[in-house]
């Protein structure tokens, strides 16, 4: 079944923020969501599925600093 990969940025404070979401095609003829789904006449409702797998998370970037949520409010604009 098809799914999404969600890429994250992880900060030194351990908070993670989503950055991008990528569609992954399962390339299966029995998946209605796939670009490989059969286009010919067949019993689609009986043999095909259209359920996405859960998203998969992948940390693509790690930053040493703290995230925007952890930066004290009084530190913003103090420079």
Q: Could you walk me through the main structural features you see in this protein, from its secondary elements to its overall organization?
A:
This protein has 79 residues and is mainly beta. It has one helix at residues 44-47, and strands at residues 3-11, 16-24, 56-63. Helices cover 5% and strands 33% of the residues. It has a three-stranded mixed beta sheet with strand order 2-1-3, with no helix packed on it. β1 (3-11) and β2 (16-24) form a beta hairpin.
Computed CA radius of gyration, to the nearest angstrom: 20 Å
Count the E strands.
3
Uncertain residue ranges: none
- Estimated helix fraction: under 10%
Helices, by number, come to 1
Structural class: mainly beta
| Topology as a string of helices (H) and strands (E) | EEHE
**Biggest sheet architecture:** 3 strands, mixed
Please give the alpha-carbon distance between the first and last residues.
50 Å
What fraction of the residues are assigned to beta strands by DSSP? 25-35%
Name the strands of the widest sheet in spatial order: 2-1-3
Principal-axis shape equals: rod-shaped
Mean model confidence by pLDDT: 90
Short note summarizing the structure:
By secondary structure, the chain is mainly beta. The protein has one helix at about 45; strands spanning about 5-10, 15-25, 55-65.
